[in-house]
Amino acid sequence: MMSPSGVQPPESYSKDDVQEILHLAISRKTDVDELSRTQLWEIAAELDIDYESLQAAEQDWLKGKVIESKKQEFEQYRRKQLKQKAIRYAIINFFLIMLNLLGSGTVSWSLYILLILGLPLALTTWNTFQTDGEAYEQAFQRWSVKKEMKESISSLWDKFKKAWQS
After folding, report:
1. pTM for the complete prediction?
2. Which residue, 5, 86, 106, 114, has fewest beta-carbon neighbours within 10 Å?
């Protein structure tokens, strides 16, 4: 059977294709941008998706949202660190260039220091905006563990202070 556009639909679809087609169909069926959780369960029931599968998928989706939120926080942290390094770099090099100008009237040796100190900043900048790959994932994991440790120690310290004050 030919579709209205004249393109022959395939006999089978990949999981990604099914997901995309269903997403488009659900978007066209509803006039609102959001569906309630009850509506989600109703749609799943209509598609003959069992309760356990939908609940597991929902939990996976929630975990993915949490990880995505943490990655956004990590990226903001890295950009803040980069900004601090760039400001430090600018201050140091401004001072050295002024020192060079006052001493000899020209900018000579301070350019070498500017370039030498610029290399680590350039590498840090490149690294900050890389959000793919194994190095990014390792840096994210290190940051995440460090953050969790700080939160645990802070929580433990707060509990200790409350117990001491009681």
Report:
1. 0.68
2. 5
